[in-house]
């Protein structure tokens, strides 16, 4: 079993190019390359990949910190492929949230096997099936673990949109209209991005449960879990 999409974060251009070619042509995986961790984090779909291959010695945010950030936003598979050695390094990356650690030099076939092994473990439907609830009477979001989160009016409006979408992406225009904000063609939607960011952070501060709210490149946002209105 292989993921459909994968982000490769490594500043070794030659290695990345040949590994990308191998994974795409031999394994059928759509690979997006990033030579800087900050470039990944700035991408609209940064947390939407099904898998991540991460080097540790990166420009921008270092590999360990990048893994911690990924773990706050996605339960996708994460494999580290790095030249750094030592038991303390292994301990550090696994504690940060990586699923497996491979030491360079490594054969591309070994990388593919590691991806498949991790993907079998992480591709479980149970987390995605956990039901979130929006209590409109109390203005609270109820997390599957039972945590109740008080929402702002903007939060409630956005979550109602996602509940009505039944797991489908919601366009930026639809979200802005729901918030009563004017949609101006060609202008930035930084205000919407900030509102979404604050909603994510409010949920993350209240519960360790993975927040299924993700950006959808060139479309808008999607809530990747069942969300019921009660």
Automatic annotation (TrEMBL):
Annotated Response regulatory domain ranges read 5-119
Q: Give the matching InterPro entries.
A: CheY-like_superfamily, OmpR/PhoB-type_DNA-bd, Sig_transdc_resp-reg_C-effctor, Sig_transdc_resp-reg_receiver, WalR-like, WH-like_DNA-bd_sf
What CDD domains does its record include? Answer: REC, trans_reg_C
Residue ranges annotated for the OmpR/PhoB-type domain, each copy included? 122-225
Residues the record lists as 4-aspartylphosphate modifications: 55
Q: Which Gene3D superfamilies match?
A: 3.40.50.2300, Winged helix-like DNA-binding domain superfamily/Winged helix DNA-binding domain
Keywords assigned by UniProt, alphabetized? DNA-binding, Phosphoprotein, Transcription, Transcription regulation, Two-component regulatory system
Q: Which domain of life is it from?
A: Bacteria
SMART domains in the cross-refs: REC (SM00448), Trans_reg_C (SM00862)
> Where's the DNA-binding part?
122-225
Query: Which Pfam families does the entry mention?
Result: Response_reg, Trans_reg_C
The name this protein carries in UniProt is: Response regulator transcription factor
Q: What is the lineage of its organism?
A: Bacteria, Pseudomonadati, Pseudomonadota, Betaproteobacteria, Burkholderiales
């Amino acid at each position: 079993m292989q993921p459909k999409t994968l982000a490769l974060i490594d500043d070794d251009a030659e290695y990345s190019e040949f590994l990308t070619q191998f994974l795409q042509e031999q394994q059928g995986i759509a690979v997006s390359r990033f030579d800087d961790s900050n470039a990944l984090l700035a991408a609209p779909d940064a947390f939407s990949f099904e898998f991540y291959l991460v080097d540790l010695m990166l420009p921008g945010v270092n590999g360990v910190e990048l893994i911690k950030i990924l773990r706050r936003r996605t339960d996708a598979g994460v494999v580290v492929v790095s030249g750094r050695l030592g038991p303390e390094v292994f301990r550090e990356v696994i504690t940060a949230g990586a699923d497996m650690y491979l030491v360079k030099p490594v054969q591309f076939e070994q990388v593919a096997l590691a991806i498949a092994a991790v993907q079998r473990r992480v591709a479980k439907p149970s987390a995605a099936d956990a039901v979130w609830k929006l209590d409109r009477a109390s203005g609270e979001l109820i997390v599957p673990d039972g945590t109740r989160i008080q929402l702002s009016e903007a939060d409630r409006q956005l979550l109602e949109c996602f509940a009505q979408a039944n797991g489908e992406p919601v366009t930026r225009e639809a979200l802005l209209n729901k918030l009563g904000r004017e949609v101006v063609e060609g202008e930035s939607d930084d205000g919407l991005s900030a509102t979404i960011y604050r909603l994510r952070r409010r949920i993350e501060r209240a519960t360790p449960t993975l927040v299924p709210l993700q950006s959808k490149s060139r479309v808008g946002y999607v809530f990747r879990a069942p969300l019921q209105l009660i």
